[in-house]
Amino acid sequence: MTRPGIESSEISNRETLRIFGRALRYVAPFKRNFGWKILLTLASLSPFLVLPWPVKILIDNVIRGVPISGDQYPFYFFPEWVVSTLAQATPLTVLLWTLSAQFVLVLAVGAMGTSGRERDQTDAALGGGHDSATRTENQANSGWSLAGGLLGLYDFAFTLRLSQDINHHYRSRLFERIQELPMTAFDDEKIGDAVYRVMYDTPAITSAVYRLLITPIAVPISMVAIAFVLPREAADQYGLLFWTALALIPGTLLVTLPFAGWIRGESGESRRSGATATASVEEGISNILAVQSLGGEERERKRFDRDSWTAFRRYRALVLAGMVTFVAALTIAIPLLGYVFLHLVGLVIDGGLSPGDFTAVLAYFFTLASFATQLGSVWIISQDAAAGLRRVFFLMDLPAERDPPAARPLPRLRETLRVEDVSFSYLPGTPALQNLSFETSVGKITAVVGPAGAGKTTLLYMIPRFLSPDSGRVTIDGIDIAGVTRESLRKQVAFLFQENVLFDGSIEENIRMGNLNASMLELRRAAEIAGADEFVQLLPQKYQTQLGSAGAKLSVGQKQRISIARALVRDSRILILDEPTSALDPDTEHRLVAAIREASRSRIVLVIAHRLSTIRGADEILFLQDGRILERGTHAELIAQPDGRYRRYVSLQTRGAA
User: Which listed site, 11, 129, 416, 499, has its alpha carbon 20 to 30 Å from 294?
Assistant: First the structure.
């Protein structure tokens, strides 16, 4: 993977803040939905405001038989007509009224609130895995509500759709970014790692933005709202309850802050080990034929076993870090909770609070403490997401292929392609091309030959700008391609790679990728030229035959013919063929060479080939060695040189074939 630097395993608090700020920008397209989600969250918190009152009524007015009066119940919470109606009611009537109200509450918002448990149950239902990969599937499809009933059902469905929208948007941006990377970007990296980042690291945005946006808004509003629903006899205790709970916010933050780096580190290691396991699966399956043919099943099984178990082990380390952090947070919460509990017990003993008031006030305090703890733990809980977000942003920040600021469209090629004094190195001090120059034009076939590692493919990669020269330039009709748009340049180039790349689709779909607007007649004509039509017609579904993964149902030669047909159907002015006949039989090769000659009438054709039958008819042959053009000319001219390198190359090839 082409990188501006090494991906560090450590993330500082400052960098974490930048990561969160960057993640929040991805919420911009959904800001209205997030505003509605905040309102739904506030509505779903209503059970926490109502929950203690039925218990107080049952204790004081039903069990103890204390008559209901306006002095006990605030009119802004209980309408006057309710208080006056129940003031003369028997305990049984009060019980029936309470149960009826509770039934309405259950229907509207669930069984007196869920304290967040429904969210946990929802997540558990979506996936049972306990490693970083399977947990992220829950995050990508996170649907939750703090309420139940009709409100909770709507809130759940709305949140599920919002989570999926965010993840789809974020995941799509990363995939688009990968598409913009140079074709050499993953030469030194495993594809499985990129797959893991797209599928399993991107959902980290869900938990991060929900906590960072919703909690700081909904929690303070809910804490203030509790002041308006306390029993009147306990209203003077709200200050003590509020400030004690408020102390949990900085207390939780300060106690857990030292553990933030540990959690980020363990989360990063868990994700990296999960990516390694994913890469093992990808490599083992994509290379299954080589594994089986070499008897490597046991080695691959052991490798995957090691990588898979390491992923689970690293996740257990992350869980341990979370447990230690939770225990540390309790050191500040337990003393404060104990102090308030003992204070309220003392008020009951002194007659300052009734048993029902005590139950209600204590419940409200625990709600306040829970809200305050959530707000104080936003930072520490979000650290797991920070590691996933950083892995995604690192991939997004890799240098992409970019057009220069003043890039202009390349006019359709009329005549000439020229390579002028081009040099290129993959690594410093090891040149792949050295001061290389040649020229070709429409109507000509130029063959590039030479030993392995001579720089043949690297040279032709310069033409569609898959690679850019370190020095020198490539021009088309005198225009330097470094100053044109990639899209306009690559529209004029059809490149047939040495390794056949087919997709899981029909034969027609694979050929049509070369030209989405091609007619069926044009597709069949290209297939006939490539020698593919004859075997396609023998298939039961002909051009609608599904090829399977990477064309698994075809032979190597058949794959190559379809790849050639895809290149030929493309309406391009430059046709580049890298070993086009390596897997063809002599008859098909002969027809293809004739087709290449026909195609060159309106195109520039460049061919990399080793087989003499393919290169003999070229208008010019470039013999490369060590990144230099050592000889050039027609086959007859080069073979006539007594000590020529091309002649010796052909002689060795002919002798080897004999």
Answer: 499
DSSP 183-212: TTTTTTS-HHHHHHIIIIITTHHHHHHHHH
Read off the DSSP letter of residue 398. Answer: S
pTM as predicted:
0.76
**For residue 573, what are the contacts with CB-CB under 8 A and spacing of at least 6?**
412, 413, 442, 492, 493, 602, 603, 604
Q: What's the pLDDT score for residue 301?
A: 79
C-alpha separations of 592 from 498, 510, 513, 615 in Å: 16, 19, 20, 12
DSSP per-residue codes, 58-92: IIIIIIS-PPP-TTTS-TTTS-HHHHHHHHT--HH
The answer to whether 437 and 610 are in contact (CB under 8 A) is no
* Domain definitions of the chain by residue range: 13-51+113-396, 416-441+454-630
Matching CATH topology for 13-51+113-396 and 416-441+454-630?
Answer: no
What is the DSSP track for 83-126? HHHHHT--HHHHHHHHHHHHHHHHHHHSSS--TTHHHHHHHHHH
**Alpha-carbon span 372 to 366, nearest angstrom:** 10
CA nearest neighbour of 414 among 462, 460, 476 = 476
| pLDDT at residue number 653 | 65
What is the distance, to the nearest Å, from the Cα of residue 176 to the centroid of all Cα atoms in its chain?
10
Task: Return all residues near 511 (Cβ < 8 A) that are at least 6 apart.
Answer: 518, 523, 526, 527, 543, 562, 565, 566, 569
The neighbouring-strand residues paired with 430 are: 427
Structure tokens at 22: 């960057």
Residue type, 553: K
CB 68 within 8 A of CB 53: no
Radius of gyration of the chain (CA): 36
What's the angle, vertex CA 363, arms to CA 60 and CA 59, rounded to 5?
A: 15
- CATH number for the region 416-441+454-630 comes to 3.40.50.300
- 657: which DSSP letter? H
Domain 13-51+113-396 has CATH 1.20.1560.10: yes
Q: What is the pLDDT of residue 117?
A: 40
- Residues of the chain predicted below pLDDT 50: 1-5, 75, 112-128, 656-658
Query: Helix or strand or coil: residue 644?
Result: coil
Q: CA-CA distance, 636 to 335, in Å (whole number)?
A: 96
